[in-house]
Amino acid sequence: MFERIKKLFRPLAIFYLLVIYIFASLLWWSFLLIQKNNELHSEKIKTYSKEYAEKGYSEEFFNSSNLKQELDSKKQSQNLMILGEGLVFLILLITGTLKIHGSLQKEIKLNRQQRNFLLSITHELKSPLAGIKLSLETIKKRVLQRDKQQLLVNNAMNDVSRLNGLVNNLLMAAKIENESIQLAHSEVDLAEVANQIINQFKPTLGSKRQIVTNIHSHSYIKGDQMAITSIVTNLIENAIKYSFIY
Prior knowledge:
Number of helices: 6
Mean pLDDT: 80
Low-confidence stretches: none
């Protein structure tokens, strides 16, 4: 498990190291460009100041000249341009990092959900398979009375129906994920669907629990029968799973 977590977070660690390296490089190159621009400005000031001195002008005159003001303004505008471009790049870097971070987190969350789903569905599939196996082994190894044999056969058939429902749920989930599902709009008898599903779950309820419905017979609704069956099955499963016996 620990190794699996390490493999999951390794791409994130590499990504964050790369982002930190780019951010540090951005700061370093911005500092160097501004420093280089200031050095060029100082060299130009020295050169023009020397030329003015050779012509007999004082340093105060050069400092108040338009040329000096133009050089200072140019240096300032170039520094602002470097900072502006660096800021734009930094905003793009942060925005991209946040977007990629969100996508990676979604992928990690989806991976965990899929793993949990597989573990859950594996457990759900084992239960009816174990029931079918137990019923068939009992019928095979023992000579039973007709009523007991029929009871085991009915239990096995109910487990088969439950297993079929789980497989249908898996198929529907796959279709929904691939966006290839096409729902029908036919009339479905909700009472009949509910009663069929309840009969499948009755053997698992025991003597202290029962399912009570208040659905009028021949209650038709428009929808996809497989989707409605899946919804009702999930509702009843959750009701059984999270109900308490007093």
